[in-house]
Specification:
The protein is α+β, with helices and mostly antiparallel strands and 129 residues long. Helix content is 33%, strand content 31%.
């Protein structure tokens, strides 16, 4: 996995994120004190899950020779007393039978990001000056 770097971009919360040659901004919504110049951190988490799910389903269907034309994923996150609850809606476009659709929904839970989110995660933090 490539290194991700994050640095302050001015404003109350804005952060510039860099992965290899890719750059994007993270920020909070205005009603949460940010300037809404980028997706919020939890929205980036949802984006990671959605894109990983779609990629995994595409690869699986291609290997099986199934007629999957497109995958669209809609995600919503809600934090509460039980922690983060993610709702993921998967739309499968293609002439798939019921068994293929059911199998693809099972495979959705096997994408690497999903496995990371429901598995054990260790975060090791160090500080330098």
């Amino acid at each position: 996995m490539r290194e991700v770097t994050v640095g302050w971009a001015g404003g109350p919360f804005a952060q510039d994120v860099q992965v290899a040659g890719h750059r994007f901004r993270a920020d909070e919504q205005r009603d949460l004190g940010g300037e809404d110049t980028g997706a919020a951190p939890h929205e980036l988490l949802l984006a990671a899950l959605g894109s990983c799910t779609a990629m995994t389903l595409k690869v699986y269907a291609e290997r099986k020779g199934w007629p999957l034309k497109d995958v669209r994923i809609a995600l919503h996150g809600e934090t509460g007393p039980a922690g983060l609850v993610i709702t993921r809606k998967v739309v499968l476009d293609g002439d798939l039978d019921a068994d293929q659709r059911r199998r693809l929904l099972d495979i959705a839970d096997k994408c690497p990001v999903h496995k990371s989110l429901v598995g054990d995660i260790t975060i090791q933090t160090t500080a330098t000056s």
